[in-house]
Recover the amino acids of this structure.
């Protein structure tokens, strides 16, 4: 019997969604984002710096984030904030995630006619 294929891309985009949402509220630096995701999801979602920094760099490269270097308490850190492009991306990701979560919830609640995810 062949091994079952999983969908490793199912959770792709979740760190991006969470990062954009956090940065929409306030600018933050990388490790602060890691800590905020852990605390605001009650540690249900825990992503490390190895996930967060590549996402931050990709979003910045795509124009969704802007960065600036700040020195706080003698430490130089790069703070990120959402651009207009990032706000649009967040809206799109939020809509997609909400549709997916609603479809899953319908299935969990026993819905016989769960609609497809758009």
């Amino acid at each position: 019997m062949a091994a079952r294929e999983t969908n490793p891309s199912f959770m792709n985009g979740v760190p991006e969604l969470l990062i954009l949402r956090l940065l929409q509220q306030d600018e933050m630096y990388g490790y602060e984002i890691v800590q905020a995701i852990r605390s605001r999801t009650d540690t249900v979602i825990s992503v490390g710096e190895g996930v967060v920094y590549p996402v931050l760099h990709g979003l910045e490269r795509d124009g969704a984030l802007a960065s600036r270097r700040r020195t706080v308490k003698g430490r130089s850190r790069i703070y990120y904030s959402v651009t207009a492009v990032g706000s649009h991306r967040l809206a799109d990701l939020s809509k997609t995630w909400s549709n997916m979560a609603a479809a899953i919830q319908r299935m969990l609640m026993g819905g016989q006619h769960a609609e497809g995810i758009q």
